Amino acid sequence: xxxxxxxxxxxxxxxxxxxxxxxxxxxxxxxxxxxxxxxxxxxxxxxxxxxxxxxxxxxxxxxxxxxxxxxxxxxxxxxxxxxxxxxxxxxxxxxxxxxxxxxxxxxxxxxxxxxxxxxxxxxxxxxxxxxxxxxxxxxxxxxxxxxxxx
Length: 150
What we know:
single chain; 4-stranded antiparallel β-sheet; 3% helix
């Protein structure tokens, strides 16, 4: 993988990981004490966040270049099919991390905007205010999570 980014656990299957600049999604499975990695989607330059919805057997991925969230049907062997465009940000934010809650609702973060959006409508459910300089360029001395003040 060129630029590993997002990672999601899929019970009974393994892990899914995205490679933003490599444009691939891989599945990582443990078989007989060793790990096997297989490319399950290609030609996805900008793929970023990834989340697995176990009950629906769906994998969601965000793409920070196209500003789209796509879902795939997940087979028992971890392969993907039935690509479906779930949502387009339309310039709202650069899409980043993803998660699916226990009720099956998918969420994606909007990098640079400090937003958490619920899909499929893209409803803003949280907005975190950050200093303007953090949105343009990360500066550890201003990061509220790190808590460092120089």
